[in-house]
Amino acid sequence: MKNMNKRIAYLAPELPSLSATFVTNEIWALEDMGEEIHPYSIHRPQHKAHGQKAADLAARTSILYEHDMKSNLRALKWTARHHKRSFAKATLQLTFDVIKIGLFRTKAIKLVYQFLHGAWLAKDMRRKNIEHLHIHFAHVPTQIGMYASSLSGIPFTFMAHANDIFERPLLIKEKIKRSHKTISISNFNVNVMANYGGNTSKIEIVRCGVESNSSFERPETLPMSKPVVIGTLGRLVEKKGIDTLIDAAAILAESKLDFKIEVAGDGPLLDALNAQVIAADLSDVITFLGSMPHTAALDWMKTLDAFVLAGKKDSNGDMDGIPVVLMEAMNFGIPVISTQLSGIPELVIHKQTGRLCPPEDADSLAAAIQDLFRVPEETIWYAEVAKERIVHEFDQELNAKRLLHIFNQAA
């Protein structure tokens, strides 16, 4: 697949971040394969990933927005003097982009600011003899990275995830055109980018994966505690649909199912969701566990009888892509229920690897939870097929190899 190890720059909004462990896991997977990774972050993470390995990554990560504008301007001046063709190409791109957006619009002014940070990144990548730049998220990181690529002559790829194209698709057509390849986590996202005029022939599907193993121990009966424990995990924000899960719990409370729901995570809707639980008289059924480190969350997940992610589109149009937390549950053999939203049906295939229901439909969600425990033999089969789906399509090492193949094609 490759003749020699590459020096690859990685750029993300916050690195290493607790909310984007898939980026750090991807970096480590590539390093385990012998690649030399140079990490860059737009901001210093507000919520850092836990553990010594993450701390070591943080120590060697350059934070772009902590470099002052004088440093950026010096880097741009250096490029203009020593690499005139690259400077001319990048400034022409910026001029085109600013005119397209609107000369005096805030987004255009921000783009100039991002271009200047791209100048520092370009010079630093030249200094380190970087051979390829890979970018996570299609909004600000790619706006900085595509200019850094033009200023340095180093090819770039970028990966589109969710709100970066659902809510902030600025210049997506141009980003795809300028990239060596654009990476999408789902076919759903490919269609979104096509609707903005993106050239789909330049888009490749690479999943955000999890570390899997091929073994699956088929239980004789569905492992169930009494009561059954249903879990959900995520930031307590509108798009996670936890309010719908609470409404479904109110319906389940009228059934014969003996259950409890544990909600792991924290966020701005905690008080509102707590109030909803109290109003529905569900305080004995629903428990909020708060935020927890990733390793602790994985250990907690193994104790569950089922995992539910009731995602929906929020009032700003944001929604999940393919949540890694669903992959993690499926990887552990935990039966999953989610919604027919975005790229989720590419992971959770209805009545094959789990169950799906319409977003914001508490009745359907309650029925799906009841069905999960009504026919345990069928549910065990779903879990086994789900595990195979993870191993053959969403495995971390497999998708790191797919990425590396794309990187090695870049001149």
Structural overview:
By secondary structure, the chain is of the alpha/beta class. The chain folds into two domains: 218 residues, Rossmann fold; 166 residues, 3-Layer(aba) Sandwich (Rossmann fold), CATH 3.40.50.2000. It is 46% helix and 15% strand. The chain contains 16 helices and 13 strands. The strands form two sheets. Strands 3-2-1-4-5-6-7 form a seven-stranded parallel β-sheet, with helices on both faces. Strands 10-9-8-11-12-13 form a six-stranded parallel β-sheet, with helices on both faces. Helix 3 crosses helix 4 and helix 10 crosses helix 14. The longest helix is centred in the N-terminal third of the chain and has 22 residues. The mean pLDDT is 93.
Topology:
Elements: E1 7-14, H1 21-32, E2 36-43, H2 52-59, E3 62-63, H3 69-82, H4 84-101, H5 106-127, E4 132-136, H6 140-152, E5 156-160, H7 163-166, H8 172-178, E6 181-184, H9 187-195, E7 203-205, E8 228-233, H10 242-252, E9 259-264, H11 270-279, E10 286-290, H12 294-301, E11 306-308, H13 324-331, E12 336-339, E13 355-357, H14 362-374, H15 376-393, H16 396-409
Parallel strand pairs: 1-2, 1-4, 2-3, 4-5, 5-6, 6-7, 8-9, 8-11, 9-10, 11-12, 12-13
Rg (C-alpha, Å): 23 Å
- Taken as a percent bin, the fraction of beta residues is 15-25%
Indicate the CATH class of the largest domain. Answer: Alpha Beta
Count of distinct structural domains: 2
Strand order of the largest sheet: 3-2-1-4-5-6-7
Give me the secondary-structure category: alpha/beta
